Amino acid sequence: MKITDLRCAVIGRHPIVRIVTDEGVYGLGEVEFTKTYLKPFVLHFREALIGEDPTDVERCMLKIRQRGSFKPYGAAVSAIEHALWDIAGKAANVPVYKLLGGKVRDQVRVYNGSIRRKRTGDKPEDYAADVKWMAEQPQNFFMVKQGISFHSNMKDNVEDFHYGVRQTRSGYHGAMDQGQISERGFNHMLDCVIAMKEVLGDKVSLALDCGPGWFLPDAIRFANTVEKYNLMWLEDMLTGDYVPWVNPQAYRELTLSTTTPIHTGEQIYLRHNFKELIETQAVRIIGPDPADIGGIAELKWVAEHAYMHSIMMAPHGTANGLLGLGALINVCATLPANFIAFEYPSASDPWWEDIVIGLPKQIVKNSMVDLLEAPGLGLDIDPVGAKKYLLEEDAGFFEP
Amino acid sequence: MKITDLRCAVIGRHPIVRIVTDEGVYGLGEVEFTKTYLKPFVLHFREALIGEDPTDVERCMLKIRQRGSFKPYGAAVSAIEHALWDIAGKAANVPVYKLLGGKVRDQVRVYNGSIRRKRTGDKPEDYAADVKWMAEQPQNFFMVKQGISFHSNMKDNVEDFHYGVRQTRSGYHGAMDQGQISERGFNHMLDCVIAMKEVLGDKVSLALDCGPGWFLPDAIRFANTVEKYNLMWLEDMLTGDYVPWVNPQAYRELTLSTTTPIHTGEQIYLRHNFKELIETQAVRIIGPDPADIGGIAELKWVAEHAYMHSIMMAPHGTANGLLGLGALINVCATLPANFIAFEYPSASDPWWEDIVIGLPKQIVKNSMVDLLEAPGLGLDIDPVGAKKYLLEEDAGFFEP
After folding, report:
1. What residues pair up with A147 in beta bridges, in sequence order?
2. In terms of pLDDT, which residue wins out, B175 or A210?
3. Bridge-partner residues for B14, per DSSP?
4. Which one of A74, B4, B346, B362 is most buried, counting C-beta atoms within 10 A?
5. Quick check: helix, strand or coil at residue A387?
6. Domains (ranges, CATH) in chain B?
7. Which residues from chain A sit within 8 angstroms of residue B48, using beta carbons?
8. Residues ≥6 apart with Cβ < 8 Å to A286
9. What is the pLDDT of residues B264-289, one digit of tens each?
10. Is B169 in contact with A52 (Cβ distance < 8 A)?
11. Are B3 and B51 in contact (CB under 8 A)?
12. CA A332 to CA A343: how far, in whole Å?
């Protein structure tokens, strides 16, 4: 089997990868809707892959893997990897999890990091009402994740939240907002945690997405102060999101200081950039995203490396869409026992549920999703239904 | 002063950045000609920068710096940084080196890593003839760098050079070709070194660009075996070029094993990714590229960090073109005493010398270049002369 074309169409806001072969089999991959601009980055790899056998996934990946990098530059390579596995699974007539070593669980646990309504404000009562709403959703999530501090409007809406430079003009989300957190800001965050825990009790667990932008002293103080609330984790305090470096040394200081589990990793590309984080036990939980780390096989390998070091896995997936959900389900079915749950992804638009074929009507039940048993990654896009969402330049996207 | 536009035109094969302001001052930056595809990556940052004051370079960089990464994804951010400094220098009516702390040398040393003719083959006599030709060039380079092993055709043309998988179809240069080097391959490299040193003696120094693709045992054996030839350095044996990770732990093993200086760093983005390489003394020389590391100010900072650790500086610059040369000259004039020399860059086409204004006829004399004393980075493109090289879509590139 040979690759004859690699296409990319932006559907809704998701760049969708479609790899076409000389045997009529095709594979699909999806990029986060927050990276709509990524189409040229995907097509950059077209020429390198044409003529390759997509069912030898690793040989294809050897050609392009080194041309990815920290988020967002691992996404094109990752989505291509998903499409290759989709083909390999279809060619072997098995779900992809069978090609990743086989499943070790029949359902996969998910947490709520993306199903949201607009929060009524940034006060403790707003946070409490927000998680109450989340806990009442039909998916019955075992855990919700909330943004605080630099990962929320709190940094701007709470007066004197921090003593860093206030950025008057918005930029890219990530490392831009940073500063020493004021005592008032610190107490505000603490009040929000208390208010949320009062609502959730120990019925629904709570994790906080915190940054990046903290400095180590604030992070250590906060992680220690919230110890009694048994948070699932504190995420991305020091680096994370779109920060193109890791700083494992600082994370190790933070982790050693507290019983609150420290989490990071969504922006990190490849095992090599996780190496020190894992081997020095610098965090307790890592959250690689299969659509950023370099693909599902890379995520699997890193999960096993983490497992060997008693580090937990909670893969990121916020904006990965429904095909991205298929990739997450397949790989997470195969992860070792350090797997907690993956972040249930949203799609750019509600109509995605109408055009993606292969998902049950109710996807999440009791915070669990069923495996997808169709060959490949188990999902497809209905070309007829999708037609009205295609841009003119992508008219040929679904052609054989 | 406010940025009113950020443009990018591919001229020859170089993506050229032009930042335009409301006061008529503009700045230029240049991307390596090996990254012709980078135009959309540059324009990605346009919206974030419009309205900013380009003379507060750091505030602009805070907005975009985190969206670069390992090579090639640091190049867009870096070229933009050069253009910002170009404006800042013009606005202050000083050469940019004055804004980087001021010069500490009146001329800057360069080495030959890019002025080449096609080598007659891969045998020791071909290598000897090649460096003889290089040593006879009018620039009188104090040092030449030669590609061997995985960084040359040797890996394919010398029978059984290595025992790794032979890649039958070409891919992106970088981490793809790897393998245990055969004894025959090892001896072949050694014969080439001996032949080159016989020609060069101690008149012209020799460095070798080696990979990446070596494994540690081969690298240690080779570095030890060539100790008596006093090579300037062995470059990028383990990682380098387009490898999106560093592996400082392995480099430290190599460095500790030998008196031959070990060099890497051209693909590394930002100080954070140099941190461990420097702080653990993992190499003896680093070679960041101002057009990849995140800009000239970033390179300056990293050079000072390296200096504090007795690590030498030999910045990369092979394909940076003539505007890239201007950036290298300005920053290298300011580097501390650990500066050895920078890699003299080539441009994509010989006609670049006709359209770049501000360079002397003979740029390199006795392996040294003079500083550029015009405001900003000291160089400009002649819009009339450049017109015939502009693509139709870039017709407005030189407009005010």
Report:
1. A209
2. A210
3. B11
4. A74
5. helix
6. 3-93+382-394 (3.30.390.10), 99-376 (3.20.20.120)
7. 171-172
8. A263, A264, A265, A274, A277, A278, A302, A306, A311, A312, A313, A314
9. 999 999 999 999 999 999 999 999 99
10. yes
11. yes
12. 11
